[in-house]
Amino acid sequence: MAEAQNLPVGSTTAGSVAVAAESTVATRMSAPPSFDVADFPVPHGREEEWRFTPLDRLKGLHDGTAKADGALKAEIDAPDGVTVESVGRDDARIGKAGTPVDRVAAQAFSSFEKATVVSVPKEQVLDQPVRVTLHGEGGTTFGHTVFDIGAFAEAVIVIDHTGDAVRAANVDFIVGDGAKVTVVSVQDWDDTAVHVSQHNALIGRDATFKSVVVTFGGDLVRIHPRVNYAGPGGEAELIGLYFTDAGQHQEHRLLVDHAVPHCKSNVVYKGALQGEGAHAVWIGDVLIEAAAEGTDTYEMNRNLVLTDGARVDSVPNLEIETGEIVGAGHASATGRFDDEQLFYLQSRGIPADDARRLVVRGFFAELVQQIGVPDIEERLLAKIEAELAESV
């Protein structure tokens, strides 16, 4: 297992299956955040934030040629007390959690007709998840969804993406003081889909936010979770799982911005890859600003390469502007099967193919069990089993 941890700025560890490097967060964006698409130049692929993305597979989302000519079937199943509204771009909740940071996100903001706002009243504890099902029926669509969680409320939100689509969207999470929120976003698109989405979370004082991003389908999927804190005591946990098949490009770019004191964050993303041209990208940015004393943060990315022809780019970044912190660290590891684990299992009579499946299931099981939604956990384990059946 090749590993890079706490490297000096600009250093790299490169091999046939992975690249891990570190650079400052401040240099990662070519333009400041903006709601206006005109503020972002058309990317050419040499910018830091676009250098891993195959622009020709974005179907025009990045250069303005994509037109809203598609259909997306959206269904929201919400428990009693939760309200669902369709609002205009001038609603005060739109953009409160974050601003587009690249041209596709700005294009999505400029192009949606109506935004959907899902609100959970303060102090309400939901006994069932809020389920949002988005099924693409072809063509290009843009969207904006806001989840507004009141103070001291508790909610689980499941966002499920299926079907075929070219989709650009912004998804905002406004987490009130003392609230507890778990969000599960599943990308289980058809193999031809393109999905680019920026997730913005604004975490209130003493609030807890868990993000679980699961990516299996799509030709190109690029998800950009971003976390900001509105007051001290906030905690963020970002969990990710991805299984990248032949020809797929799956990219997850994260930013946790610690700008207020005494907040915590923990990031764990794991991926498995198989097949010629399978390409996974993980960018983990953590910024600890000068005012963020007492910060406690850690991020980790691990990748398991199952076959030849797959590629991983894993780039953890940590920028610290104050020495008055509890702790900060990051790690990135990419490798093939652990021969010792396989030997141990085979020495106890388990056939080689079954042993490989057990190793991969164990690799993912720790994260799947943290989702907390039984039907989603069962579905993902079944999906992992189906993927493994193709590789062994």
UniProtKB/TrEMBL annotation:
Pfam families: SUFBD_core (PF01458). One of its GO terms (biological process) is iron-sulfur cluster assembly. Residues 135-363 form the SUF system FeS cluster assembly SufBD core domain. Signal peptide: none annotated. Belongs to the iron-sulfur cluster assembly SufBD family. This is Fe-S cluster assembly protein SufD. It comes from Streptomyces boluensis.
